[in-house]
Amino acid sequence: MNLLQAAGPLSVSSGEGQSYSGVNEKADLMRQDELAAAEQKNASPSDLGAHDDARALVRLIQCSRCSLPFRMPVTLPCGNTICRACVPQSHEREHISYPDLPGRRQAFRCPFQQCAEEHPVSDCNVDVVLTKLMDSIAEVVAKHASAIERTPAALEAAERWDEGVSLPEKMATQEALAGRLVTTYLLAAEGKLARDAQMDYLPTPEVSGNESAMDVTILSELLETTQREVDCQVCYNLMLDPVTTFCGHTLCRNCLARVLDHSQHCPVCRRGLSIAPSLHSQASNKTLVNLLNGLCPEAVSARAEAVALEEAGGEGGLNTSLFVCTLGFPNQPTFLRIFEPRYRLMLRRCVEGSKEFGMLMYNRYLEPQGDLGPVHFYHYGIMLRIIHSQLLADGTSLIETRGAYRFRVKAHGVMDGYAVGNVERLDDVPLVEEERLEAEETSLPPAAEDDLAGQLTRMSTKDLLALGQDFIVRMQARSANWLQQRVLDIHGLPPDDAAMFPYWFASVLPISDEEKYKLMGTTTVRQRLKITASWIRRIESQRWYQSNSCQIL
Amino acid sequence: MAAPLPKRIIKETERLQSEPVPGISAEPHEENARYFDVKVDGPSGSCYEGGEFQLELFLPDDYPMCPPRIRFLTKIYHPNIDRLGRICLDVLKNNWSPALQIRTILLSIQALLGAPNPEDPLNEAVAKQWKENQPEAIKTAREWTTLYAQKK
Ligand SMILES: [Zn+2]
Ligand SMILES: [Zn+2]
Ligand SMILES: [Zn+2]
Ligand SMILES: [Zn+2]
């Protein structure tokens, strides 16, 4: 297909409104990422034109490592995308004992400078939506490329336009074209167009009108064929702020959060999604975000507005019922007896509605609670899911609940006598951060002999968990009354999951609620395990002096 | 009180009508768009062939986070369907995922008619008969199909 021929230095033709200077100037000043970001922030929808922005459009799907259109794209945990073949060599990670799943031992250094983090190999699977998009694009291009011999045009390439350095490169002219989009894509697919390279198209007056119309046709055809791929499989709307899971499946951020409230499995492939991924720190799929913003900005902003409207009546307002009572933990049962009419009303609304309400611990010493000041509750609480409720003849309700997740109260008020609030879910940091922390802490130089906290800090996550589990075994051997069968019937056996163990431990251990509350604001598994380990150390030191006494803390 | 119908339910309903599945129909009620009248044809080659089975399907408030509720209205002789028409199907329980939809659930139910599984019974009596005397069980299923599942 004789695409390129060497030719003289670059020259931008003027006239016929075909000059590319506008785009060129912008491009000279900014890297493409910044360009995309600027486009994103632009409040008024500004889509990329099929013809005028052909180069920018193709760049959106060019791998930043190999410059080819993505081949089996992998979206990394940082939200950047590269071809699977462009994922760097992996290495063995050290000082990591939790969760120690197969595949998490191997990692590679992220090639994107803004990230440069270590990504576990198992967190990087082929991005299903982007792969389908790339296939559709290739199909549409192939269909139109057959017309290539019949549409004469010319183009010039290319100049290094990053770093502000102009490196005159070979200029190319092309005899046959099927519009700028197809031409540019094909050049990229043949490895002849660096991602950073700019292109100038020489106008051919007699066909420019046709060419432009062809680009528009091709782009709308592309949009049509890819429409269903960019619909979220949960809400059936255009994906809003798409987030890609480690298994390569993509949903709206809000939809994924809702899914995670109900299950720890990917809705598409049912693979376990490891510990509650804090969606706050989960990156958006940047390639997809940029593509959607570039191709259908009106649809994106319409979706964002609709969701904002929906949430104004919900999320933004004081939409969570709050019950100020006692402490509860994730995954642990709480049994409540509700008899005050205002709480009966609250309960009825919850049972009919979301089946959830927040429970907060009573702040009897009026300790200050962050921005809220000295309020009558502690600001970290537990979202309780109602499992069973029984209304007695006198109007009292007995309810069985289970802790779903922790939250922090951002604002609060009163509705019909009971507290309501705007709450923010509190999750653990992502697994990678947890692992990084462990590696860092366990590699510290040894702590002094009397530095108890320092010693705990240097223990591996696995050992911290074992410390707790061993303690339980020893206490059971001594028939500690807080580990009676009755207690285990309610709370279950000690969980093997290091993330959950501290919650179980705090639920059964007879120490003050104020002490247990320390777990509520934690965001790492290690932080919680260190707290439980410090309780154990203190209990043991007391026992040392008081032999058989069972008084604890 | 009545919240607007989520886009997802609207789209699913539209697609069920614009791209119908052969042998399956699902019509929403006019006064409650979350409630569907469903008809499933017995798969050809099965002992339910020739029958048209009516079911009711309801999309709860938390759909698609929770599965649709569905049961047979037509009497059917099947080891995984009980006398009340309740269906023993994993995707309607623990294996539900919000990526599934009404269409895939109805297809699973049609497949269940084609492949009764007496090893995981909901109707013990039918399952017992199915295991001990399969020809007799199939004969009964055919008779019930003729008796109760005639196209109207
Ligand atoms: Zn990265
Ligand atoms: Zn690549
Ligand atoms: Zn969605
Ligand atoms: Zn998945």
From TrEMBL, chain A:
Organism annotation: Salinomyces thailandicus
InterPro entries assigned: Lon_prtase_N, Lon_prtase_N_sf, PUA-like_sf, Znf_RING, Znf_RING/FYVE/PHD, Znf_RING_CS
SUPFAM superfamilies: PUA domain-like, RING/U-box
Keyword Iron attached: no
UniProt feature, compositional bias: Polar residues: 11-21
Coiled-coil stretches: none
Keyword terms of this UniProt record: Metal-binding, Zinc, Zinc-finger
Protein's name according to its UniProt entry: Uncharacterized protein
GO molecular function annotations of the record: ubiquitin protein ligase activity; zinc ion binding
RING-type domain location: 232-270
Domain Lon N-terminal span(s) in chain numbering: 318-540
CDD domains, A to Z: RING-HC_LONFs_rpt2 (cd16514)
Pfam families in UniProt: LON_substr_bdg (PF02190), zf-C3HC4_2 (PF13923)
Region (Disordered): 1-21
Automatic annotation (TrEMBL), chain B:
UBC core domain span: 4-150
One Pfam family here: UQ_con
CDD domains: UBCc_UBE2N
Active site (record annotation): C88 (glycyl thioester intermediate)
A single GO molecular function term of this UniProt record: ubiquitin conjugating enzyme activity
Superkingdom of this protein's organism: Eukaryota
Family per similarity comment: Belongs to the ubiquitin-conjugating enzyme family.
Entries under Gene3D superfamilies matching the protein: Ubiquitin Conjugating Enzyme
InterPro entries: Ub_conjugating_enzyme (IPR050113), UBC (IPR000608), UBQ-conjugating_AS (IPR023313), UBQ-conjugating_enzyme/RWD (IPR016135)
Protein name: Ubiquitin-conjugating enzyme E2 2
SUPFAM superfamilies, alphabetized: UBC-like
Signal peptide as annotated in the record: none
Enzyme class, broadest EC rank: transferase
PANTHER family, sorted: UBIQUITIN-CONJUGATING ENZYME E2 (PTHR24067)
Assigned EC number: 2.3.2.23
Species per Swiss-Prot/TrEMBL record: Salinomyces thailandicus
Keywords of the record: ATP-binding, Nucleotide-binding, Transferase, Ubl conjugation pathway
